[in-house]
Specification:
The complex is a heterodimer of chains A (443) and B (325). Chain A is an alpha/beta fold and 443 residues long. Chain A contains 14 helices and 15 strands. Chain A has two domains: 139 residues, Rossmann fold (3-Layer(aba) Sandwich), CATH 3.40.50; 198 residues, Dihydrodipicolinate Reductase, domain 2. In chain A, strand 5, helix 7 and strand 6 form a beta-alpha-beta unit. In chain B, the strands form three sheets. A four-stranded antiparallel beta sheet of chain B has the order 1-2-5-11, with no helix packed on it. Chain B is globular, with a radius of gyration of 19 Å. The chains are: A alpha/beta (443), B alpha+beta (325).
Chain lengths: 443, 325
């Protein structure tokens, strides 16, 4: 295929996804947005400067999606704790566009280190926040204070102190009419939106119970290298440290827990559960559990069983299921059934546009339209829900929403540097302290 | 039990070295109770492609031409998750069959690169136990073969398009290995019509005349070849011997057999499917994974073992990511 031909194809594709996703937006998310024509007009007018904060695989993917969403977005700055991650990311973005689009992040606008984020944010109109989640509250607060529109990945904090910071700034963002999209992409997926509509229309009655799952084999592990300081090791192998990651019940399972909150239409009143570390308990596995099972009770009386597991060789399922007074929903398959299990509707067979792209298409359309997408409050509350679950499994106690929200638990150090001591350090055998049900306290 | 197991392993080893019989066998994988049923496919000649009169054919299936294929074993079933996850997890590497090493393959198992563990569940909720592994790239399928070879000492690889079609046809020249009537597919294959939009456990339908299951449908199967629409036009000599279009780029590569998502005509013996970049659309990371297609729950693979073992250098060619040598 010739270069020109290819360019045309890409343009065609972009236009198509633009139209399609805007249709979805007006229907489902932004009832108050202005017309398509107005958007086209504004879009031609102003370059939007983009900064990427957190240059891992997901951040790099999000940057590509942002650049794809709107032809007048320019990547002007990047920030990461590590030089090599930043370099790889930039190479990845350039390779992705294969010369179709000029990517030119000036060397002086590539910032490395713990304080890199603010320098990159300063240079942009829109920022992507995709570092490990422990840093999100600080980065989000700074971005909002500087009047930036935000795309940020879930979860948005790892502790209640961070959640409160995000909630506070979610409010400020709204007042300032800044757009904030949170990467809980099921909320941007056609199938889930269609199921949610069925619930609102009363097809399955009132939801009384649900089961949500992220049972998988686990994720990557980055082994300790001899030259690394403890801080550098934890930053590289961040998935296994709570101040950075928040445990997989938060980092991954938040997607499914958020669907429960969304479909039931409330946040849980309390959580109790159990969990532990049975198979993933080596020296490179830090301090997080490999399984959690939590029972969330909602103010309406609905009860949701939430299970997440990172163990190899076991039953796998990533899904959500709900039972109502008149019917039931199987989310992954996109099935709505009656109480006998007969299919009433199957929304799982339709073509669903890439939700990761939709998030950015809607974000930039909304910026152009002077609309306001305000995902941050729910992002914070979804984060808190999963943290509440984690507090329940770590302590073995029932944790209420208020207890979680007002908890003193604060995991993330104020201003970490490469020299500072991380909040958790290994003993002489290289083992980290592990939460212990019945002993670990959250009060 | 342990003694019995060792004895069994020894027998395979002895057979393989001493006379290399050409019989069906069960490939054990040390450290597991899993075995792979391998069916001997006698070498021979066949007519590759479909004639213009075949209903549902595409232009890329012609012209028909005579092809000669050397003998090989082919797995009776598509590779299942039970098997594929051993490669993903890489926890049984230390159990490799040291008795048989060097028989056909001498390769340090540590030297075989491992696929990344995906962020999402790659079975898409369709099922694990007994279900075909899906969503892997051709590179990943080839690396599985390399890993399996290192583990067992026998040389495994993906089939070429020619080997695949020869085995699928099993001596027939009809649209399907059971005849021309797509209505009869119900007994032999999972297609769009009867799959209920999901893959199914391997081996539930009738096998083809040579005892291979799910050659038509269930999951489309990776072959070794670059997909070239006009490949058959270039095959002038008669017969063409063991054709293999060595890939020089990642897309498109060729898959065969059709899948649960496809209509009857795409399940025909001669039907060819090119791979596409779109199968990674939903990979949220950049660079996108070398190991996974996030949007291709309809592709899988099965393995072959040539009767005549290639040299160590040749072996590498079949496992390589890019065939630029």
């Amino acid at each position: 295929m010739s270069q020109n031909h290819k360019k045309k194809e890409i343009k065609k594709l972009n236009r198509r996804s633009f139209v399609k996703t805007t249709g979805l937006a007006t229907g489902a998310l932004m009832a108050s947005s202005t017309s398509m024509n107005a958007m086209g007009y504004v879009a031609g007018n102003k370059k939007l400067k983009l900064a990427l904060v957190g240059c891992g695989g997901r951040g790099t993917g999000a940057a590509v999606q942002a650049l794809t969403a709107d032809p007048d977005v320019e990547l002007v700055a990047m920030a990461d704790a590590f030089q090599d991650r930043l370099d790889q990311s930039l190479t990845g973005i350039i390779e992705h566009f294969e010369g179709e689009r000029k990517i030119d992040v000036k060397e002086k606008n590539r910032f490395v280190g713990f304080d890199a984020y603010s320098k990159a944010i300063d240079l942009a109109d829109v920022v992507i926040l995709t570092t490990p989640p422990g840093f999100r509250p600080q980065h989000f607060e700074y971005a909002i204070s500087q009047d930036k529109h935000v795309f940020m990945e879930k979860p948005v904090a790892t502790d209640p102190a961070g959640v409160r910071k995000v909630l506070k700034n979610a409010k400020i963002a709204k007042e300032k009419k800044l757009n904030v999209v949170v990467g809980l992409q099921r909320r941007y997926e056609k199938k889930y939106l269609a199921l949610h509509k069925q619930i609102q229309e009363g097809t399955i009655g009132k939801i009384i119970s649900g089961q949500v799952y992220w049972n998988s084999a686990g994720v990557w592990v980055r082994a300790r290298q001899p030259q690394q300081t403890e801080m550098e090791y934890q930053m590289r192998n961040w998935y296994y440290f709570n101040w950075l990651c928040g445990d997989h019940i938060l980092e991954q399972h938040i997607h499914n827990i958020d669907v429960a909150n969304w479909f039931i239409g409330e946040y849980p009143a309390s959580a109790q559960g159990m969990g532990g570390r049975q198979t993933r308990n080596g020296l490179d596995h830090g301090e997080i559990f490999d399984h959690h099972f939590v029972e969330f009770t909602y103010p309406s009386g609905a009860v949701v069983a939430s299970q997440c597991r990172h163990q190899k060789g076991c039953f796998r399922r990533v899904d959500e299921a709900f039972q109502g007074t008149k019917g039931a929903i199987l989310a992954r398959k996109g099935l709505v059934t009656d109480l006998e299990g007969e299919t009433l509707l199957n929304v799982g067979k339709e073509h669903d546009p890439n939700p990761y792209q939709v998030e950015h298409d809607l974000l930039f359309a909304s910026i152009r339209n002077k609309g306001v997408i305000a995902d941050a409050e729910n992002g914070a509350k979804a984060t808190l829900t999963a943290i509440m679950g984690r507090m329940a499994t770590y302590s073995g106690q029932t944790i209420t929403w208020e207890q979680a929200l007002n908890s003193d638990l604060s995991l993330v150090p104020e201003n970490p540097t490469w020299e500072s001591k991380p909040p958790t350090i290994p003993d002489e055998n290289g083992k980290y302290p592990i939460p212990m049900p019945g002993v670990t306290k959250f009060s | 039990m342990r003694a019995l197991f060792l004895l069994f392993a020894h027998c395979i080893c002895f057979n393989a070295i001493a006379q290399k019989s050409f019989e069906p066998y069960a490939q054990k994988i040390s450290g597991t109770d899993i075995h792979i049923s391998m069916v001997p496919i006698q070498g021979g000649n066949f007519t590759m492609g479909s004639t213009e009169s075949e209903i549902g054919r595409s232009l890329d299936e012609g012209p028909t031409h005579n092809v000669e294929v050397a003998p090989f074993w082919m797995a009776q079933f598509e590779v299942t998750w039970d098997l594929y996850n051993l490669f993903i997890d890489r926890e049984i590497d230390r159990h490799r069959d040291t008795n048989n090493l060097g028989n056909e393959v001498l390769l340090a198992v540590d030297a075989v690169s491992g696929a990344t563990i995906p962020y999402i569940d790659m079975d898409h909720g369709m099922g694990i136990e007994g279900f075909p592994a899906i969503n892997m790239t051709q590179l990943a399928a080839s690396k599985f073969c390399e890993w399996l070879s290192a583990m067992t000492g026998n040389f495994y690889r993906l089939p070429t398009e020619a080997e695949w079609e020869y085995a699928c046809r099993a001596g027939t020249q009809t649209a399907y290995s059971f005849g021309n009537d797509p209505m009869a597919l119900e007994d032999y294959a999972w297609s769009k019509k009867n799959s209920d939009s999901t893959s199914h456990k391997v081996g539930l339908k009738k096998p083809n005349p040579w005892g291979l299951y799910d050659m038509h449908g269930n999951v489309a199967e990776w072959t070794l070849d670059q997909y070239e629409e006009k490949a058959y036009f270039n095959r002038k000599q008669h017969p063409v011997s063991n054709p293999f279009i060595k890939p020089i780029k990642t897309y498109p590569r060729s898959l065969r057999g059709g899948s649960w998502i496809d209509q009857a005509k795409q399940l025909r013996s001669a039907s060819r499917k090119p791979s596409t970049k779109k199968w990674k659309l939903r990979d949220p990371q950049i660079p996108k994974s070398k190991w996974w297609h996030t949007d291709a729950p309809f592709i899988g693979f099965r393995i072959v073992r040539p009767y005549k073992t290639p040299t160590a250098e040749e072996q590498q060619i079949y496992w390589k990511e890019k065939h630029t040598n």
